[in-house]
Write a structure and sequence with these properties.
The chain is α/β, with parallel strands linked by helices and 763 residues long. Helices cover 35% and strands 17% of the residues. Helix 9 packs across helix 20. 59% of the residues are buried. Bound molecules: ligand MGD (2 copies) and molybdenum atom.
Length: 763
């Protein structure tokens, strides 16, 4: 039996399994951009947009939420940001003519990649069940009919989803519209993503978002990196990490996969690195933790810190900080001491020596940052993943210290900002007193539905109408088969979108597909050209202007669509000036400022401040807006983040490739993992293949082991040897979503446990 524990040396790799041989970045990323330019067929003008991307006064990338620096690079975009832009400025059109030629039954045969590649939506469309086609409709008729449908329902039967694409202006109006109508069913993509953060960081340190800013990365000594794939999902962050490493900061990474970007990076903007083929090693230590094993890792690290304190009392922990600023330390310490190393090793899949080595780096560092992504949030015990990371940082006072803090890496470009301006199912997301004072609206008191509640409501008939401002819910949600079957039972579906996707092919009884401008498009309204705004992962707000010609004369902005719908639905109210707001978005920004004065003071004046303007963070200043008024230690109750031990089965992790943005599949090259050609694969290590009697290339099925009367399986998956820990398999999202049960989600926030489904492999 070989030792299946993987770690220490970032350059070690299982021979005989695919690997990308070059560093992330470099020529490979330039070729990646080149390929998508070829595929997307953009105009020359479109290419000019890239040069203004993520620069002050320019267009803020539609892909990830990574920070936009005040002093950008010549090209402040990455391979995947370029793909997102070029995908949006596509010259192809999915216009009324296209839809008249294709029934939805025909379109369902298209692969998701080919469906979106049909091009930009250009005409408002209404589904005609008779001919099974979307047919053109006027905007006015669409708004009138949607309003009649919504008004015929109890407001609480309607759900307004949004997916983190729309700017702050449209998002604020959407959140206001829902509450004025009488519901706060405002699920958002973060319900499938960083809701674990929004809910649990708030409980632990009194802020729903990260505490770091870019400056912290200039002075940190160590970064502990958990479950975030920077090379694919936020590549511009690699520049920041590279600079930190070059100044001597040490990066310690925990991830079941040796994600290439966290191993080595060649800066495509550095002529010397490019010419000489040099690369910067990113992770000093890389540990291939088992999925769900991070609580055990962090418990082990904390044990080592406590042992060091025992050996030299008063010198290791930050006692002054713990005494003055925190709660619950003694109970947490007692629980951590009670865990034994054998169990920590078993759960983490790492040796005690590896965990102590990581803890020694922590002990040797004055300023530490904890970074994380979906590897921590998308687990049943995601709360404890975060709690333990916060615990580790609090032990030596790393939160609220320059160069230290906790930094979740957010997903969609404006997912964090939408929540800041009231998009969210909780009453607390929008201040009721402000709604009363500004608009005379009495908002509902009870919380609305998040994404999982919405699914349950669609299944049991409580939800009758679903409006989607962007996104592709039927593909993104768990339990896809059940959800796709339930979707057509909805009375009303309205999709406001840039490009066609699967969710548009499961219409409700009455269904509309409405084309909107994307962020790359120029937005002309009655008072002239408009800007929109967004908030990045580090809580900085940026204005954005799209320079591209809109894809067609009928296409309207998200602000215009939301405002027109609201106007059609709500009774007249002189305080709700939907037309005036559509004409001039600065008026909306004034209202955002009046609703959230602490975050948005001077919003319009600061809109184009280079680097964005910071909206502040109380925990950063050691103001703990928690129940106790202190930072809370979290007492661990288990060492596993998994809801269910897979027993004799395997834990399934669902991944994004380097060639997709969520459900948008740009292509079939997962270059940074050395995987090409197919997404219908399961990744598994060679020893496990031998143990299970599987051979490379064999076609198998996966079956979910959660027994609740529903059979969940996906077949046609090619066995692919890959460098992974034992007892886990990995595959792609969204293909494997039918395997993830709706009921399997993070305990406090409802974030689906997409990284921890117990499965068996059926040969
Ligand atoms: N190009 C591109 N960029 C994107 C996206 C995209 O699809 N494509 N999506 C955007 C969105 S909405 C989001 S939320 C972010 C997502 O970005 P990430 O947070 O990076 O999410 P994932 O790609 O799902 O990958 C999570 C990582 O966690 C690891 N992992 C899985 N399970 C565990 C575990 O139990 N423990 C640990 N320590 N690690 C684990 C996986 O190997 C993987 O490297 O990216 C955003 N940016
Ligand atoms: N198994 C598994 N499932 C997952 C995940 C996982 O890791 N594993 N990750 C989850 C996560 S983190 C997330 S965030 C969700 C993502 O879920 P969603 O946010 O719902 O999905 P997207 O794929 O981002 O939505 C893409 C669609 O948005 C539309 N769109 C693009 N740009 C715009 C725009 O500017 N305006 C408007 N109105 N529409 C636009 C286009 O029509 C496009 O087809 O998926 C979740 N699902
Ligand atoms: Mo996300």
């Amino acid at each position: 039996m070989t030792d299946d524990r993987k770690g220490h040396d970032a350059t070690r790799h299982d021979a005989g399994t695919p690997e990308y041989e070059q560093a992330t970045g470099g020529w490979g990323s330039l070729r990646g951009v080149g390929r998508i330019v070829g595929e997307a067929n953009p105009s020359a003008a479109a290419l000019k947009i890239l040069a203004r991307q993520n620069k002050p006064g320019g267009m803020m990338c539609t892909a990830c939420a990574w920070a936009k620096p005040a002093h950008p690079h010549t090209f402040e975009f990455c391979e995947n940001g370029a793909k997102a832009t070029l995908w949006e400025v596509d010259r192809r059109r999915a216009d009324a003519d296209f839809f008249s030629r294709n029934t939805l039954t025909d379109l369902r045969d298209l692969h998701d990649h080919d469906l979106e590649r049909t091009g930009r939506l250009t005409d408002p469309l209404r589904y005609d069940p008779e001919s099974d086609r979307y047919l053109p409709v006027t905007w006015e008729a669409a708004f009138a009919e949607i309003a009649a449908e919504l008004c015929a329902l109890d407001p609480k039967e309607s759900v307004f989803y949004s997916s983190g694409h729309a700017g702050l202006e449209a998002s604020y109006l959407y959140a206001l519209f829902a509450r004025a109508m009488g519901h706060q069913n405002l699920p958002q993509s973060s319900n499938m993503c960083h809701e674990t953060t929004s809910v649990n960081l708030l409980r632990f340190i009194g802020t729903p978002v990260g505490t770091c800013t870019l400056e912290d990365f200039d002075s940190c000594d160590a970064i502990f990196f958990f479950g975030q794939n920077t090379g694919s999902n936020s590549p511009r962050f690699l520049h920041v990490l590279k600079a930190a490493v070059e100044r001597g900061c040490r990066i310690v990474t925990f991830n079941p996969l040796r994600e290439r970007g966290l191993v080595e990076f060649t800066d495509p903007q550095n002529p010397i690195q490019m010419t000489l083929g040099q690369a910067t090693r990113i992770s000093d230590r890389f540990y291939q933790v088992r999925p769900g094993g991070d609580i055990a890792v962090l418990a082990g690290m904390m044990k080592h810190v406590l042992a060091a304190e025992d050996a030299a009392p008063g010198t290791v922990l930050d006692h002054a900080f713990i005494d003055a600023e925190t709660m619950g330390f003694a109970e947490t310490v007692a629980a951590v001491r009670a865990f034994d190393w054998a169990e920590i090793e078993a759960q983490s899949g790492l040796t005690r020596a590896m965990i102590e080595e990581a803890a020694a780096i922590y002990l040797g560092s004055e300023r530490c940052i904890g970074i994380y992504g979906m590897g921590l949030t998308q687990h049943v015990n995601g709360w404890l993943n975060l709690g333990m990371l916060v615990n580790l940082l609090l032990m030596r006072g790393h939160i609220g210290r320059p160069g230290g803090g906790i930094s979740p890496v957010r997903g969609h470009s404006n997912v964090q900002g939408q929540r800041t301006v009231g998009v969210g199912e909780k009453a607390a997301h929008m201040p009721a007193d402000k709604l009363r004072a500004l608009y005379g609206i009495e908002p509902p008191e009870d919380d609305g539905m998040n994404a999982v509640d919405t699914c349950e409501g669609i299944l049991d008939g409580r939800v009758r109408a679903l409006i989607s401002l962007g996104g592709n819910l039927v593909r993104a949600l768990p339990d896809r088969q059940r959800m796709e079957d339930a979707w057509p039972r909805l009375r009303l579906t309205v999709n406001i979108a840039t490009k066609p996707n699967r969710s548009h092919l499961t219409p409700g009884e009455v269904a509309f597909l409405l084309p909107c401008l994307g962020r790359t498009d120029r937005d002309m309204q009655a008072t002239g050209e408009q800007s929109v705004s967004m908030e990045d992962s580090l809580s900085h707000i940026h204005g954005s202007r799209g320079p591209a010609d809109p894809p067609g004369p009928q296409v309207r902005s998200e602000v215009a669509i939301v405002a027109a719908l609201a106007k059609a639905v709500l009774p007249p109210n002189p305080a709700l000036d939907w037309d005036g707001w559509t004409a001039d978005y600065a008026l909306i920004r004034d209202l955002i400022e009046r609703t959230f004065p602490d975050d948005f003071a001077g919003f319009n004046e600061r809109l184009f401040q280079p680097g964005g303007f910071y909206r502040g963070n109380p925990a950063r200043d050691r103001n703990w807006a928690t129940e106790s008024g202190k930072a809370e230690f979290t007492t661990p109750t288990t060492l596993s983040a998994l809801g269910e031990d897979p027993g004799a089965g395997m834990t399934l992790v669902t991944l994004r490739s380097n060639d997709q943005f969520n459900t948008t599949i740009y292509g079939f090259s997962d270059r940074l993992r050395g995987l090409e050609g197919s997404r219908e694969v399961i990744l598994i290590n060679r020893d496990e293949m031998a143990r299970l009697g599987l051979i490379e290339g064999q076609i198998v099925s996966l079956r979910c082991l959660i027994e609740d009367g529903i059979d969940r399986r996906v077949g046609g998956l090619k066995v692919t040897a890959y460098d992974l820990p034992a007892r886990c398999v990995a595959g792609y999202y969204p293909e494997l979503n039918p395997l993830v049960p709706l009921g399997s989600h993070e305990r406090y926030s409802g974030t689906p446990a997409y990284k921890g489904t117990p499965v068996e492999i059926i040969a």
